[in-house]
Amino acid sequence: MTGPILAAPRTLTTARLSLLPPGPEHLPELQRLKADERVFGLMLHGTRSLERTREELEDDMEFWLVRGYGTWSVFERATGDFLGITGLMERPDGRGVALRFALWPECRGKGYAREAAAAALEFGHRAGLGRIIAVARDTNLASRGVLTDIGMTECGEFRHQGHRMLVFESVRWPGAVQPPSREAS
User: Which residues touch 130 (CB under 8 Å, ≥6 apart)?
Assistant: First the structure.
């Protein structure tokens, strides 16, 4: 693949966060995060074993090389603390490229998930992805709030393991006239 996605810078910086493509140096933090029921209990396929997290890290690094996008490890710039992950991944159910995020519960209420997810979403659109989706359980009000706050709109639903899952989307086709931002309203 060639084009804007592979040419896009891989590291993102926001007002408070650094988003870095994951590398082997992030494995200990990723293993703790993905094994924590409070964080990954709501994610597709649930919590991960140490070995599964190692395999996912290898897959994430390869995905970046092949696709030019993927998962970022999220760090607070002021402290260097690892806060969690955000990213863009192909959904295994074929629904498309999906935005995902999972941060430590201690980050809730501080706007970090919103800031990280917005940066990932903007990266995807700038890189040429016209449609990006996200999926959240209907009961996960925090994630639903983040998705709507960053401009994603609900566009469908499905059932997964007895749970009602809501599908959100952000559509920005290259060259299309976009509606004004919320700030301009």
Answer: 171, 172, 173, 174
pLDDT on residue 183: 40
Does the pLDDT at position 81 exceed 80?
yes
pLDDT at 161: 83
Query: Quick one: how far is CA 39 from the chain centroid?
Result: 14
CA-CA-CA-CA dihedral for 163, 166, 167, 170, to nearest 10? -150
160 confidence band (pLDDT: 50, 70, 90): confident
Q: Are 173 and 132 in contact (CB under 8 A)?
A: no
Structure tokens at 23: 């590398």
Two tokens at 170?
A: 């952000």
Q: What is the pTM of this model?
A: 0.85
User: In degrees rounded to 5, what are phi and psi of residue 78?
Assistant: -65, -35
Residue 9: how many other CB atoms lie within 10 Å: 9
Residue with tokens 């994630």: 143
The Cα–Cα gap between 8 and 114 comes to: 21
